[in-house]
Structure formats: structure tokens, C-alpha cells
Amino acid sequence: MLETKMLEDIDAVIFDMDGTLIDSMWIWPSIDEDFFEKYNLVEPENFHENIEGMSYTEVVHFFLEAFPTLKRTPEQIMDEWTEMARDRYMNEAPLKTGVHGFILEMKRQGKKIGIATSNGRALVEDTLNALGVSQYFDVVRTACEAGKGKPAPDVYLLVAKELGVSPGHCLVFEDVPMGILAGKNAGMKVCAVDDAFSRIQEEKKKSLADYYIYDYDDIKNETYEVL
Known about the structure:
Blueprint: E1 12-15, H1 27-38, H2 47-51, H3 56-66, H4 74-92, H5 99-108, E2 112-117, H6 121-131, E3 139-142, H7 143-146, H8 154-163, E4 170-174, H9 177-185, E5 189-193, H10 202-208, E6 211-213, H11 217-220, E7 225-226
Parallel strand pairs: 1-2, 1-4, 2-3, 4-5, 5-6
Antiparallel strand pairs: 6-7
Helix pairs in contact: 1-4, 4-6
């Protein structure tokens, strides 16, 4: 049985999804590029940095403010983005290395398992089903459902409440600074996860988190970094 300091006094583990649970962050720049080209739009400066951590709903409203001439409703844009992303999520977004085994071990230890994501509900459910892992999660919530995106703690606090676990006994896994801050703002321990998309932010991630892993086998092998 896996016993490591990272998991001491932890009753629940809560995952972000994109870039943390699955290798999918690379999908969105390609979606944005296709969307900008389709509607003959120019990507705003620092677009992806500005939307980091936002809920799906917050992103679309930010987008419409940036492009007021785009005559589409928020619902139409979110539906279009979801359809553009679905095939890539279903077929090209695998689980991160070692995470399946880690989840199984957490289930064996009787820990609660949740997801707190900025993605949209439909895409989250379809992706978890496609990967065959939806049955492992006790609670799945989106930032849209919580009312605020990250770095606000709302989605993590909502998941913890529904899991029935106090924030101080939750361990969060996150891949970007705004997500790490959301977990910390919720009063939880946070393990930052390496991801190619956010590797340029590695030092910032390490400055905010409690632990750092390059993949989930680092936990089993006790090769994770204590920060």
C-alpha cells in the first residue's frame, strides 16, 4: 500500500482535469486558431494568459468583450467550441502518466476522489466516459457550476463540501498557477503537475505549490519534490 508524507492526514484528492488528469491543454490553442480563422479575427495579445483559470462561461464573455462585432450568443460559441474540441478529446487526450494507478490506489485506501475543472460539463462527462474512468470520481464539478473561475476557491470548496471532507484534509492536483492558487485559497494542500503547455511557468508553479511531480509515478516512487 502506498504510504507517503504527501498523503498524511489527507481524506480526499481533487483533480483539475485539463493538463492535470489528462494531456489536453494543447487542444485549446488549436481550437482558438481554427475559430479565429473561421471568423477572420485576430487573437488578442496575451489571450491565453488572460483567460487562465477562467470558467468556460467567463471565457466566452471575455471573448465577446474582445470581439463585440461577433454576432453570436454565449451559448452558441460554447456549443461551437465544444463540438470543435470533442473529437480531439475523445481520441487524442490520454490520461497523464501514472494517474490511473494512483486513482486506483486512492480508491483502495478509501479516500474520496473529485474533479474541479474549468471545462464545460458536457465535454468533461464525454471525456471521462471515453477514457473509462468516470466511475472512479465521487464528485465532478465545473467552475461554471460554482459561479467563479480560478483562482477563486469556489469550485474546490464546492467539491470538498459535496465530498463531505474539510478543506484542510484535501489534496489538490493542478497544472497552472491560477489553479494552484485556487486550491491554496481554498485552504488545501496542492501538488503541481508538470505539463508541456505550462512548463514555461514551472518556477512560478513551484513557488505556489506544496509539492511538484513530473508524473504520478513520482508519488509511488517518492521522487516528488517537497516545496
